[in-house]
Amino acid sequence: VKRWGTGEIEIDSITVGEGKSATAVFDEEHEITILVSFLANRPIEKPVFGITISDNSGQVIFQSNTLWLH
């Protein structure tokens, strides 16, 4: 897990699928759910969360964030 930003938000936990680790192997035939739990010391109006999924060789195969979605 890589983290960027100001540090105002702290990632508490990440759950992939049904409790699988962030390094689990998935195939393109199935949807996955990623649940992120975070903590903040104050209200953050528009937090931006991002995700990068890479293959075994480190090649990025998917990348997105909540800023790109708006």
User: How far do the termini sit from each other?
Assistant: 24 Å
Sheet having the most strands? 2 strands, antiparallel
Beta strand count: 4
Looking at the structure, what is the overall shape? Answer: globular
Number of helices, counting only DSSP H or I runs of 4 residues or more: 0
N-to-C series of helices and strands: EEEE
Give a written overview of the molecule.
The model has no long low-confidence stretch (mean pLDDT 82). The two termini are 24 Å apart. The chain has strands at residues 9-16, 34-40, 50-54, 60-65. The chain is built from no helices and 4 strands. With 70 residues, it is mainly beta.
Secondary-structure blueprint of this entry?
Layout lengths: L8 E8 L17 E7 L9 E5 L5 E6 L5
Antiparallel strand pairs: 1-2, 3-4
Short description:
This protein is mostly beta strands. The chain is 0% helix and 37% strand.
Salient structural properties:
mainly beta, two-stranded antiparallel sheet, 4 strands, 70 residues, 0% helix
